[in-house]
Amino acid sequence: MSNITIYHNPACGTSRNTLEMIRNSGNEPTIIHYLENPPSRDELIKLIADMGITVQSLLRKNVEPYETLGLAENTFTDDQLIDFMVQHPILINRPVVVTPLGTKLCRPSEVVLDILPDAQKGAFNKEDGEKVVDDAGKRLK
After folding, report:
1. Range of the domain at 98
2. Which of 107, 141, 121, 135 is nearest to 21 (CA)?
3. What is the pLDDT of residue 1?
4. How confident is the model at residue 141, as a pLDDT?
5. Are strands 102-105 and 96-99 parallel, antiparallel or unpaired?
6. How confident is the model over 19-38, as a mean pLDDT?
7. Per-residue model confidence (pLDDT) at position 74
8. What percent of the residues of the chain are helix, what percent strand, and what percent coil, each to the nearest 5?
């Protein structure tokens, strides 16, 4: 059983890069495809608290139904925003990774390196070719 969990969207390059960096550390995480299996309201509240971020920080703005729901008007309470994210999981920014060292919204994807319990096992380049980890497993930036 893995001690790392990723709330993952396989259609997202940042999420795919994050997953591969977890695997590059020698770990196979528990993968939660959050669009099909969204976190409960309580789970979402705990993730936000564990990340130490605002509800607004986890809200994805460049997707439908953000505009349709009028979320750009910024007139909603945190509780209302959480309810929208539970009802429309596409509004949850991703990927979120939980490890024994912490919980983070991994944007950019290399943020995951801050909370992985094991070092990178070798070089890692993002899908776009950007080098993140060198051949010795050392973070480049």
Report:
1. 5-133
2. 121
3. 53
4. 80
5. antiparallel
6. 97
7. 85
8. 35, 15, 50
Best CA proximity match to 94, nearest among 23, 28, 12: 12
| C-alpha 31: how far from chain center | 11
- Tokens found for residue 35: 């669009």
Known catalytic residues are 12
Could you read off the pLDDT of 83-132 as tens digits, one per residue? Answer: 999 999 999 999 999 999 999 999 999 999 999 999 999 999 999 999 99
Residue 23 burial by Cβ neighbours in a 10 Å radius (0-12, 13-18, 19+): middle
- CA atoms in the 13 A half-sphere facing the CB of 76: 17
Q: Tell whether 113 is covered by a domain.
A: yes
What CATH number does residue 26 fall under?
A: 3.40.30.10
- Claim: this prediction has a pTM higher than 0.90: yes
